[in-house]
Amino acid sequence: MSARGQFSSRIGFILAAAGSAVGLGNIWGFPTQVAENGGAAFVLMYIILAFVLAYPVLMAELLIGRYSRSNMVDALGNLGGIAGRATGVWGLVTVSLILSFYALVAGWMIAYFASPIAQLLGMPDIASWLTTQSVMRDVLFCGLFLLLTAGIVLGGVSQGIERWSVRLMPALFVMILILIFYVATLDGAAEGFKRYLVPDFDRVFKPDLLIDAMGQAFFSMSLGVGTMLVYGSYMSKQERITSLGASVALVDIGVAILASLLIIPAMYVAAHNGVQIFSDSNTLISGPQLIFAVLPALFDSMGSVGIFVAIFFFALMVVAAVTSSISMLEVPVAYVTENKGFGRKATVWVMTAIIMLVSTVIANNFNALFGLVINATTKYSQPLLGLCLCIFAGWVWKRDQALQELKEGNPDAENSLFWKIWPWYVRFVCPVVIIVMFYRSLSAA
């Protein structure tokens, strides 16, 4: 038990856990959902649902993790026997597969970061190669990103994950703010700010908006795959866990809102400069096409200053990717080090090599596997894992054990509003909402 790592400070845990939640999806997915779903009205419902749905599930992971002081497989195994261990293994495989495709996407970010630098150095052929998809480019930069991730995880909890999270997360905020202020000075930005900040309250209670907001709230906090559970297992028993969980949720929400303040105005600046920002179905372009087509076209239209803006923007994207990837790699690393007797160094390199191998297979069979792996993990596996965690926390875990864990750092927890609501809420409400979301995603497929 004493050999396990532990976060050394409140701020270290908050920034590491929020960094796990803050990923590329916050920056390329959330802003366009906001713009298409009533602007600030969607943001309001997202904030409400983040605490109504995502926060209770987040607390389930953190509480189980700190109570068990172990990896996901052992933590759920201690609660639910063979079924618990099977769920833990399922989560471990899922998060490893997510990291396998995530590393490919993050590798593209590094390549797009390097491309304008190559232009500045007078190497146009290399700059063009860096932004042209090929198996060689994808595998090379995927490997580079995984090496960067492994280098941080090698340092352990306090000297690796925490140390770099308290550097990278503030840097992320600063970079977003600088870009927001710069974009605000450009022609067309005002229309984007209006699209974002002026709420369309007629859409607040439309089913599609509510379900989209619920889905964004749940998935943006990287719930269901064990990252928060493992981070919770590294949390000090003296910390008040409910307030730490709320802080993580607030930081994640804050980054999503700031990303919208950057991306939506930037898209309208691009439109002002003649760049197409709407798809054939008349919706704002989102996802990879937004990042790798719309925004680079915007940077190109800016002239010489666009090169520097591109470097800065893709540096931001790499930072966002790293803060998530280190938590993903830590999930299998924690399991192997605690169960197989391997040292951290050997485990990190072995797990990195395995994930790199899977990424290489995906890159070599991109059309067949890339979308398949994304859908299998994020659309199907992750919500079902979230459902299982609710069942373990609400139905399997003994109520008095959960209360005792909550009292660590907060002796009066039994009388708190959280304890009066959370046990039945995570038992009944969260599973129903997750099932509804899952059914809707299947119906829409």
TrEMBL record:
UniProt keyword list: Membrane, Transmembrane, Transmembrane helix, Transport
Location relative to the cell: Membrane
Main location: membrane
InterPro entries, sorted: Na/ntran_symport, SNS_sf, YocR/YhdH-like
Topology of this chain in the membrane: Multi-pass membrane protein
Listed transmembrane segments: 12-31, 43-64, 89-115, 135-157, 169-189, 209-232, 244-271, 306-328, 348-373, 380-397, 417-439
Keyword Membrane: yes
Entries under Pfam families matching the protein: SNF (PF00209)
Name by which UniProt lists this protein: Sodium-dependent transporter
Lineage: Bacteria, Pseudomonadati, Pseudomonadota, Gammaproteobacteria, Alteromonadales
